[in-house]
Design brief:
The structure holds 2 protein chains of 2 kinds. By secondary structure, chain A is an all-alpha fold. Chain A contains 4 helices and no strands. Chain A has one domain. In chain A, helix 3 crosses helix 4. The N and C termini of chain A lie far apart (about 50 Å). Chain B has one domain: Spore Coat Polysaccharide Biosynthesis Protein SpsA, Chain A. Helices cover about 40% and strands about 15% of the residues of chain B. Chain B has a 7-stranded mixed β-sheet, with helices on both faces. The chains are: A mainly alpha, B alpha/beta. At the A-B interface, helix 4 of A face strand 3 and helix 3 of B.
Chain lengths: ~100, ~230
């Protein structure tokens, strides 16, 4: 996932932005780091103010899922508006004739 | 009286109204309005064909259903392209009485206001009680979210001056459109007047599958909240 995201970004594929690449590194890179260094979750929990490290992981997971759902809904909303705009332009061709 | 110095366009969004669209159009035309635009919102029946068969009616067609708000916006855009001075929106199911159009447009013809909003609740006699409750809830939510109190935030029977039609820019496609117009009036500081209208609740209009109901109301509130926070 990291390799794919990096190559897509540097090849300039459409829809790839620095922000997306950074999010990919944080999410997937974070998972790799936690896999090899599980005790790092204690540090994360302590810095955020959560006592139990597993709670920190779960909370972070929830936040990420919420972020993904929000982005999906935003994308759907933009698509709906785009479809309506196209439908309108097609209908108004009758007037513009 | 009508269509003298100013061009008055009547916009009729319609979805699967083949049973009544001809009578709706004829009734409006009988009140001497000659610039009618019917926007067929992707109907699966012969709404567009029946409308197109009548004279002095411009029939536009959405290839797919996008919602009442989208259809109304298409009709308003069409009226603007045709140099409308005043644009009236009226439902395509025959619930609205075209006799009220002259009261709606009078303040606009006299340049007293930018928008007139038809309201059922200044005289709600004959209105089903659950619709009154639904309306009052809609009014409260519209006021709370968009900052403007009106007595009928969900009425589709409205009239706009050219100035208002140019300024109002909505994104809502479905039933949230009516409330979004209220928000646009507030944001652009447009003046408005509420005009009492009478509504005819027929068996046909009350039994339509696509009418506003509790579930659509919840969805409408959800969309209004989304537009604020997203």
């Amino acid at each position: 996932m990291l390799y794919q995201g990096t190559t897509n970004f540097f090849k300039g594929k459409s829809g790839q932005t620095l922000f997306k690449l950074l999010v990919r590194y944080i999410v997937w890179g974070g998972m790799i780091v936690v896999t090899f260094f599980p005790n790092i979750t204690f540090l994360i929990a302590k810095s955020v103010g959560i006592i139990d490290n597993i709670n920190a992981v779960i909370l972070t997971g929830f936040l990420l899922i919420f972020l993904m759902i929000f982005k999906l809904l935003s994308a759907i909303e933009r698509l709906e508006q785009g479809v309506s705009e196209l439908t309108r332009k097609e209908a108004l061709k009758e007037i513009e004739k | 009286m009508q269509d003298q110095a100013q061009k008055i366009f009547i916009v009729i969004p319609a979805f699967n109204e083949e049973a009544v669209i001809e009578s709706v159009i004829r009734e409006i035309q009988n009140h001497n309005y000659t610039h009618l635009i019917v926007v067929d919102d992707g109907s699966s029946d012969k709404t567009a064909e029946k409308s197109a068969s009548l004279e002095n009616v411009i029939t536009l067609r959405h290839k797919i259903n996008r919602g009442k708000g989208a259809a109304t916006k298409t009709g308003i855009e069409a009226a603007k392209l045709l140099d409308a001075d005043i644009i009236v929106t009226i439902d395509g199911d025959g619930q609205h009485d075209p006799a009220n159009i002259k009261n709606l447009i009078k303040p606009l013809l006299q340049k007293q206001t930018d928008v007139t909003l038809g309201t059922r609740l200044l005289d709600s006699a004959g209105m089903p009680y659950y619709k009154i409750i639904h309306n009052k809830i809609g009014n409260f939510i519209t006021w709370y979210l968009f900052g403007l109190w009106v007595t009928d935030s969900q009425s589709g029977f409205r009239a706009y001056s050219r100035k208002a039609a140019e300024k109002i820019n909505t994104l809502g496609d479905r039933y949230e459109y009516e409330s979004e117009v209220i928000r646009e009036i507030y944001i652009h500081k447009l003046t408005f007047q509420e005009i009492p209208i009478n509504v005819r609740y027929t068996d046909y209009s009350m039994n339509k599958s696509q009418k506003q109901n509790f579930c659509n109301g919840i969805k409408t509130v959800g969309k209004m909240l989304w537009k604020i926070f997203a």
